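Long-time lurker. I teach an intro course on protein structure, and each term I like to show students one example going from raw sequence to a predicted 3D structure in C-alpha cell notation. This year I'd like something fresh instead of my usual example. Would anyone be willing to generate the C-alpha cells for the chain below so I can use it in lecture? Attribution to the forum is fine with me.
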Amino acid sequence: GLAVPALAQTLPTIGSTLTAEEIERLAISQPISVGEAQYRLLNTKEESPGQPDSLLVNEQGLVGQSHHEVTITGISTEETRPKLSAWANSALEISYFEQMKMTALRFARFSDAARARDELERLFPQAKVSLPVRFSLRNRR
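-- Reply from a regular --
Happy to contribute to a lecture. Here you go:
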C-alpha cells in the first residue's frame, strides 16, 4: 500500500469533537490532570517557535487550546510576588497585574503549567488558581 504522507493529516480544530479512535491516533501524552479535569496533548506537528501553545483534548473528546498560562486571581501581587521568585527559572514569564489583583505565569510546556497550577493552588489556598483552556475560537470582545 502507498504510505500516506503525514502532512495529509488535518489538524483538529478548536471546539471540534474527536472520536476515541482519533484521540488514540493523535494524542501524544498520557492524561495530564488539571484540578478535576484531564487533558491529553495532541500532535500538532507545527510548534510555532516562541509562541508556546498546545492543542489538547479533554475527557469528552473536545479539542481546546492552551497558552500554558497559569493565572492567580483574588490575591494581591504583593502577596504573590515574594513566593514566586522560586518560579523565575521555570516560567517563561511572570506578569503582575496589580489593579486586577492577578498574576500570570507562562510556561514552555502544558505539562509544566499543569504541575505549576497544582503547586500554586497549594501555595495560595486563598486565591483562585487556574490554567485556562479555550474551546472556542471566538475572542473576548
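Some talking points for your students: The two ends are 50 Å apart (CA to CA). The CA atoms of residues 68 and 113 lie 5 Å apart.
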